[in-house]
Write a structure and sequence with these properties.
Blueprint (H helix, E strand, L loop, with lengths): L1 H22 L15 H34 L4 H28 L11 H25 L5
């Protein structure tokens, strides 16, 4: 459980740094009289939203996925990897969907097509978590669950 929380925090930082890098406008490209956020401000804003999602939804969902994996017992490592990627991908989209319902007060259900990019970010965030989770076992020298 501690491992999952630490991985969620690391994943959140990496995810938010990446998002800030993609959305940051360098000084040379800025228009006059237009407000731009600094890189650090972007990271902090993204952390405020992403970290609770990783901790409050990502970690519990990951625990549920571990329970399901134990019950299914896939022996082929490639099939196991593909299965886990698909499950984490769907879970990331579901986590973003639940977050959007809470943040919008249910209004997101009226026009879900506007949230497509956010669903993609949820999928990317969950796959980042999953792959850091795998790497944590490789670095430790243990076999994953």
């Amino acid at each position: 459980m501690i491992r999952k929380i630490l991985i969620a925090l690391v994943s959140s930082v990496i995810f938010c740094l990446s998002l800030a890098f993609l959305n940051y406008t360098p000084e040379n490209d800025r228009e006059p009289n237009v407000h731009y956020f600094s890189f650090a401000s972007l990271v902090m804003i993204y952390l405020l939203y992403a970290t609770p999602v990783y901790l409050l939804l990502g970690v519990p969902i990951s625990l549920v996925i571990d329970i399901v994996k134990r019950k299914i017992r896939i022996s082929n490592s490639i099939f196991k990897y593909v299965f886990e990627v698909v499950v984490y991908l769907i879970s990331g989209i579901l986590a973003i969907f639940l977050t959007l319902i809470v943040l919008s007060g249910g209004k997101i259900l009226l026009d879900i097509t506007d949230a497509r990019r956010l669903f993609q970010l949820g999928a990317i965030a969950s796959l980042l978590y999953y792959h850091i989770y795998i790497m944590s076992f490789l670095l430790k020298g243990k076999k994953s669950i």
